[in-house]
Amino acid sequence: ARIRRVRCGKRRRGRRRCPIRVSATDVGGTVRRVTMRIWFTKRVCRRRAGRRRCERRAVSRKLKVRRTRLFFVARPRLKRGRYRVAAVAVDSSGNRSRRARKRFRVR
After folding, report:
1. Which residues pair with residue 75 across a beta bridge?
2. Of 11, 27, 18, which Cα lies nearest the Cα of 97?
């Protein structure tokens, strides 16, 4: 699998649609599916002993991937920040490809 392109569109209500295209090929077979996961940091605040404590936590989510004629595409809605995405292709025999990774930023 290879992550071809990440391109973010215009913001709507604080979030942007960012289509992530993945191209996957298999020698002598077909690609059955592609799974994608996205990582980002989230700020979590709590009250402890009367004081407000905030910390950053790493969060990961699975993305819904749909197939087009040429690519596998995921279209998550994302806030501003830095993200990492990883994709793995599975062929008809059940073999997994190496994880393709890409970092990007939503402005």
Report:
1. none
2. 27
Q: What are the strands of the beta sheet with 15-17, ordered from one edge?
A: 11-12, 15-17, 77-78
pTM over 0.70? The answer is yes
Please, which residues have CB within 8 angstroms of residue 9's CB and are 6 or more apart in sequence? 16, 17, 18, 19
Neighbouring CB atoms inside 10 A of 70's CB total 9
pLDDT 10s per residue in the chain (107 long)?
677 778 776 666 667 788 898 988 888 788 999 999 999 999 999 998 999 999 999 999 999 999 998 889 999 988 888 999 999 999 988 999 999 999 998 88
